[in-house]
Amino acid sequence: MSKRIALLSAVAFSTLAITASVLAPANAEDKKMMKSEMSSEKTVMVGGAAMFPSKNIIQNAVNSKDHTTLVAAVKAAGLVTTLEGKGPFTVFAPTNAAFNKLPAGTVDTLVKPENKATLTKILTYHVVPGKLEASDLTDGKKLKTVEGEDLTVKRSGDAVMIVDAKGGSSTVTIPNVNQSNGVIHVVDTVLMP
């Protein structure tokens, strides 16, 4: 009987040890994330990842599976350091699906080094200086972009649309994703200056 109890105790202890090692954070970044989650930091899920208000725009964007094209474009345009900066910035962040709406080959062409100026113009057209929450995006409001041209806000009930210079419209699908250096509003269409 005591061998059986000893065996059961060993199995139970092993199970607990394995569970603890599986659930334990693997590295310092994981520990930091857990601490952040435990501190009741209000996160929004984007692309299957929590967006932490204590992290900057780039630190959060790289974790979103829905924004891999945007992140690659920001890197190709050399805008990483800018969007990691103090800000604050309001970013209308197109999803991968938004980039996929562009004519075939457009993204591949834009990320080529010889097209950096055009890519930068398009990306900075999605950035507005300052931090604008969804409640600040009132119907008819003109937003001066970092690129220099305006975007126009159109509201219909709870829906917020951003209209570009060419008359194209992009709907905000996830508003108010707060960052340490601004706010992101996820949009479903690439805006064109």
Describe this structure in words.
- Helix 4 packs across helix 8.
- This protein has helices at 2-23, 28-38, 57-61, 68-77, 80-84, 96-100, 106-110, 116-124, and strands at residues 44-46, 49-51, 89-94, 127-129, 142-144, 150-156, 159-163, 169-179, 182-187.
- The longest helix is centred in the N-terminal third of the chain and has 22 residues, at 2-23.
- The strands form two sheets. It has a seven-stranded mixed sheet with strand order 4-3-9-8-7-6-5.
- Mean pLDDT is 84; it is low at 1-39.
- The chain contains eight helices and nine strands.
- It is globular.
- It folds into two domains: 1-40; 42-187, Roll (FAS1 domain).
- With 193 residues, it is an alpha+beta fold.
In short:
By secondary structure, the chain is of the alpha+beta class. It is about 35% helix and about 25% strand. The protein is built from 8 helices and 9 strands.
Classified in CATH, the superfamily of the largest domain is FAS1 domain
Q: Mind telling me the CATH class of the largest domain?
A: Mainly Beta
Domain count? 2
| Strand and helix order | HHEEHHHEHHHEEEEEE
The main sheet orders its strands as 4-3-9-8-7-6-5
Number of distinct helices: 8
Question: Can you tell me the CATH topology of the largest domain?
Answer: FAS1 domain
Straight-line distance between termini: 79 Å
How many E strands? Answer: 9
- Note the main sheet: 7 strands, mixed
**Radius of gyration of CA atoms, rounded to a whole number:** 22 Å
Question: What global shape is seen?
Answer: globular
Strand percentage, roughly? 15-25%
Helix percentage range: 25-40%
Mean pLDDT across every amino acid position: 84
User: What structural class should be given to the helix and strand makeup?
Assistant: alpha+beta
